[in-house]
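Q: Could you predict the 3D structure of M48 family metalloprotease?
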Amino acid sequence: MGFFSRKSLLLLSLAAALGGTAACTDDNGNPVLFSVEDDIALGEQAAAEADSTYRAQGKLLERSAPANRRTYELLDGVVNKVLNSGELQHRNDFVWDVKIIKDDAVQNAFATPGGHIYVFSGLVKFLENESQLAGVLGHEITHADRRHTTRQLQQQYGISALLGLLVGDDPNQLVQIAAGLGQLKFGREYEQEADEYSVIYLNKTTYACDGAAGFFIKSEAQGQSATPEFLSTHPNPGSRIEAIQAKATQLNCQSRSVSNAAFDELKRII
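A: Sure. Here are the predicted structure tokens for M48 family metalloprotease:
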């Protein structure tokens, strides 16, 4: 069966699914036009392309390299606490593969559909403690777990383009999407939900659950994001700090203190 006919069948299946409201919305009433299996397939392709790109640049810290074993032991120790909080919808569905991109000039992290998380070394070195790292990871894990990334890609590129990727229809589009994941701009709703769930996830760990706020506090202090909220699709750092801290106060989990020995070692060897 050719690519065109397979894609047509996917589009027909999608149209049939859209006939019923329950079939195309999540618990919050947001449209979900892809299945979890589609998320996984799309994520595998995007992650393979991202791996190839950063590997070619010499920036991907390979998990298989003996020199990186301790680095990933330390990072996984944080990631797994967040993943095992008991609050994820797709803990057992997605791969939850976390990789480090060696670029100290970039303070960023991003998620593909299906649970592939990428963290830049510059972000880890920018943060001040392990709770902050856990909070930022929780934020990115939320984007994958709540399927924000798929819905945002759907909005940006269109349903037909994404379905084309699933059947191998447009490799050039895959390269473009994979390259743009780090700069994918989520709307206000998704960013607010990711901030909220970073608190919810960390509430079930030993971390201070407002850890993500620390990133915004430091960013704001250094003047890295001064765009007024009404000019941006993102809530500004000040309002995000307030919302994160308010949720942490509600859950009474903001005053915890954990050892930073492992985090300090990670920053030192990364």
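Q: Anything worth pointing out?
A: The two ends are 47 Å apart (CA to CA).
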